Amino acid sequence: MGSIKRRGGLWLAAAVVGWCASSATSAQVTVTPLAADNIMAPIPFAPAHQTIITTPSAANAWGGQRTGQEATLSDRVVSYAIDASLDAGKHQVAGKEHMTWRNRSDRPVSHVYFHLYLNAFEGDGSTWFTERQVLTAHGRSRGNAVLKDGQWGWIRLQDVAQDGTALKWSFVHPDGGPSTDHTVVRIDLAQPVPAGGTLALDIGFLSQLPRVVERTGWWGDFNLVGQWFPKIGVLELAGERGATAPRWNVHEFHFNSEFYADFGSYDVHLNVPSDYTVGAVGQLQGEPQSANGRTSYHYMQGDVHDFAWVAAKGYKTMDGTYTGEGSPTVAVRVIYPAEYVASAAPTLKSTIDSLAYFSQTIAPYPYHTVTAVIPPYNAQEAGGMEYPTFFTSEGYKEVTPGTLSQYGSDFVNIHEFGHGYFYGILASNEFEEPMLDEGMNEFWDDRMMRDRKEDVVLATPFMKWLGIAPAMSGFQTERLGAQLDRPEDPLAQNSWDRLSSSSYGSVYTRTSTAMHDLEQRVGEPVMDKAIRLYYQRWSFRHPSVADLQQALVDGTGDAKDVNAIFDEVVYGTAHIDDRVTDIDTHEVLPQAGVTWQDGKPVADESALDKQIDKQRADWKKAHPDGKPDSAGPFPWHSTVTVLRDGARVPETLRVTFADGHHEDVRWDDDRRWARFEFEQASKVVSAELDPAQQVYLDANKLNDSLATKPNGAASKRWTADAAALLQTFYSMLVTL
Known about the structure:
Blueprint: E1 5-6, E2 9-10, H1 13-19, E3 78-87, E4 92-102, E5 109-115, H2 127-135, E6 154-162, E7 165-166, E8 168-171, E9 184-193, E10 198-208, E11 217-219, E12 222-225, E13 231-232, E14 234-236, E15 247-249, E16 264-273, E17 276-280, E18 283-284, E19 289-291, E20 294-304, E21 309-313, E22 316-322, E23 330-336, H3 341-361, E24 369-373, E25 385-387, E26 390-392, H4 404-425, H5 438-451, E27 456-457, H6 461-465, E28 471-472, H7 474-480, H8 501-522, H9 524-538, H10 545-556, H11 559-570, E29 578-587, E30 595-597, E31 600-602, H12 605-622, E32 636-644, E33 651-657, E34 662-667, E35 673-680, E36 684-689, E37 705-707, H13 713-717, H14 723-733
Parallel strand pairs: 3-16, 23-24, 24-26
Antiparallel strand pairs: 1-2, 3-4, 4-10, 5-9, 5-13, 6-7, 6-10, 8-9, 11-12, 12-21, 14-15, 16-20, 17-21, 18-20, 19-20, 22-23, 25-26, 27-28, 29-32, 30-31, 32-35, 33-34, 33-36, 36-37
């Protein structure tokens, strides 16, 4: 296999030996796509880089739209029955997995591909660590933990059998990653799975959790067990997410990527030390059974595409329930360490509030449980992560109403719960299209915060003592971190072909900002309708960005605005910056020049001057209290010039006159610049683009307005940018 380098020396020899220990195992590393065999041509991998999808999926993709009349919520392609035992001292999970998988394609399948996600953490030679070194050099990100001896993580296949026949396996690299990456494995079947047939595999595995890094692992007596079992890849068919023929969508575990899997059912038995608190995806079946200092838990959940759990010594629980129209009674549990008891009740409340909001604005929550886990101090990288019916939050020593701690606690919980819809039920491919989950979820989270009138409070205790309490809405904070001045990558880009981790982070902020602007154009009720249509069409399926676009077009009835947003921001990297450049005014006086009398030119400028002076004197006498620049004896001609630097956006220009009244005009065309002329009794004193503050994609809002005299209102309004505080705040948001 070749050596695997890491900080401080060579990779653990025992782990390397373990990979080759089984007589049924092939140690060969496959770097290129599979060669044809004597049975059939191999099914290819999904592209590693050309992943942007612009063609909507076929109507029958993933079995067609779910009507609610089917026996199950999803078309269950796979099922897992897993028996797992935690060695708490070693942070190891020994497991036996019985997996069944249905071949949805029209051809036999002789090889299947599995994700072994934990191998991303076995050494610096993985795709994950290789990309981390490059991407974090150009931007902040989570996943910065430095693993040392005894802290690496891995997953080892011990045996794989099909109907009792031992199978061989080898590592593959669908995205052309390093040969030292072991996150995708090909298993060669003893008997091909016929078209429409079902495969059953029995797999023995051993998972070593890493010290907490990027969503999973241990710290002290805390074990967050995520991406811990061998999970089969997705076989996509023609008409599904841009595929034109069957293909295996089974990417390596990239640094910024998350996950993608088929819907199915999980039947999981967990055996842990009896003094550990346990929580997991799904519903607990019966009472836990204890013997010899260990306790067994049985969880089941259908119509989901992943399973994660937590086992933590001495943790406490806090319970609540949610009842709402169309949903079952939902049992809500918070699992938390003693040092973060202050976060328990706020987490419970914001989770129940989220159940209500998402159920009422999108669709009723369909499951019976939600479990929220608050990781301990020093395990922050385990926080802010989502799985179906199960998420991790962040802990606070204090959660004070009306402060940044309150907003931070609520937003993390709302965001992670919201993934249950956009990642969980609308099961998009987070590898290839992170905007469909992270971005669209962020947009709906910001809407919830807006609807509950909860803003980002920027005031410190000292500022409050002074009576200064600046605050910003969630959408305002999003635009500040959205890289609007120079977008580096399209929102529709995959998670790994990006300039930096900061560019990946803009998936959250720029998507939310773009959807905010679309909502402002079409109206909130129309946007509500469109999102509900998107959910109705694609719940318990796997939509693409193009499917979202089509649902928004159909739901809003506004193809022009939807397609403009997608062309400029989702599929492109358009820069948007409209500004007011000039205000020019002059009085409209009687015009000097030559007139003609009896065929002869006559020019009497002195008479004209006398006429103008007399009209001024008469006006002043009649209006002794008249103010300069207000209405006078002569009208004013004003010209306002606006300039477009970047893509076209529909704008409103508000022009304010000296007498206090204003007029709004529309700038909604392709001109790079425009002049608007006014002839009024008083002159223009100021002009402002986007007076209602609806165009958040505009990179520089400070140049949207101009006045003929100095006015401090704009600078006062934008004082709330509070750059230092927002940098801190966004460091948190980008990790969600």
